[in-house]
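Weekly modeling sync, notes
Attendees: S.R. (lead), two postdocs, one rotation student

Agenda item 3: backlog of single-chain predictions. S.R. asked that every request posted to the team notebook include the full sequence so nobody has to chase files. The rotation student volunteered to paste the first one in as an example of the format we agreed on. Action items at the bottom.

Example entry:
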Amino acid sequence: MRLFSKTPKPNPKIVVEGIEITFEREHEWWEFKYRGVDFIAYDLSLAMPSQGELDAILADSESLKPEMRSRLKQHFDEWSDAKLDDGETFMVDVTEVVATKTFGVTWSGGASWGDLGADFMIKNHVIIDEAWGD
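Predicted structure, as returned to the notebook:
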């Protein structure tokens, strides 16, 4: 009998339109993968975008990727020694997409990036804001 330790509970999962969505208890966020891209939502109650909305988000992300990469490179050239194509990844934040039609694309994880990251907010097919942090 184990008096002081508990077996961790598995993270809750739901499946919506064939997409497996997991609530990460440790971080208190929802995450899922759709068409090979990682998605995240930070609210405790998930407002799940439809597959059509997810497809539109992916299309916008792909069409804006050259501009995001250009901004990343410009920032690196001005402020750091980090490099593009250094193992970085991106994920899409859909916390606000249902309510405001705004989503975020977060870039991070490059070998030379350290804990640097960049967030691009997108609405109506345009980058409306960006934020940098570590």
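Discussion: group reviewed the output briefly. Residues 32-133 form one domain.
Action items: rotation student to repeat for the remaining queue; S.R. to check formatting next week.
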